[in-house]
């Protein structure tokens, strides 16, 4: 069983920075490609950023490129999403997701259907 736990969400002002984290309870994330998704009220869940199982490749959605950065620390078994220059449009519940990788350590997955394991989400609210 893979249990993902997000933390670090909160209420910030426009222009602020925030870092959300994702860890696995009782196990390692080293064999998993990871992704961050978000869902705003009344909208579909959307891809935000992804990182390969190896950690060597990352990708961010066009809407956050240059502002958000995904990273992973295999020592602490944590995946981060650093969010800078936040705007009210970034307000959403942020979810981390994990996909076990057997082949393709450098592959990044963008579709939510490709991920099997999900965290419970952490709320990020940006006030104007």
Radius of gyration: 14 Å
Say how many strands there are. Answer: 11
What's the story with the biggest beta sheet? 7 strands, mixed
Shape summary: globular
- Estimate percent helicity: under 10%
Structure, explained:
- The chain has 128 residues and is an all-beta fold.
- It has no helices and 11 strands.
- It has strands at residues 3-7, 10-13, 18-25, 32-39, 46-51, 58-60, 68-73, 78-83, 92-100, 117-118, 122-127.
- The strands form 2 sheets. Strands 2, 4, 5, 6, 9, 10 and 11 form a 7-stranded mixed beta sheet that branches. Strands 1-3-8-7 form a 4-stranded antiparallel beta sheet, with no helix packed on it.
- A hairpin with a 6-residue loop joins β4 (32-39) and β5 (46-51).
- It starts with a strand and ends with a strand.
- The mean pLDDT is 96.
What are the key terms here?
128 residues; mainly beta; seven-stranded mixed β-sheet; four-stranded antiparallel β-sheet; 0% helix; globular
Give a brief rundown of this model:
The relative contact order is 0.32. The protein contains no helices and 11 strands. It is globular.
């Amino acid at each position: 069983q893979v249990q993902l736990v997000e933390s670090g969400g909160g209420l910030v002002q426009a222009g602020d920075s925030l870092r959300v984290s994702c860890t696995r309870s009782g196990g390692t994330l080293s064999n998993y490609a990871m992704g961050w998704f978000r869902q705003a009220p009344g909208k579909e869940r959307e891809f935000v950023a992804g990182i390969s199982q190896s950690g060597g490749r990352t990708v961010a959605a066009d809407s956050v490129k240059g502002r958000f950065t995904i990273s992973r620390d295999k020592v602490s078994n944590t995946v981060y999403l650093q969010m800078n220059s936040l705007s009210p449009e970034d307000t959403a519940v942020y979810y981390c997701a994990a996909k076990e990788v057997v082949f393709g350590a450098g592959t990044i997955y963008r579709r939510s259907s490709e991920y099997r394991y999900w965290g419970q989400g952490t709320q990020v609210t940006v006030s104007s």
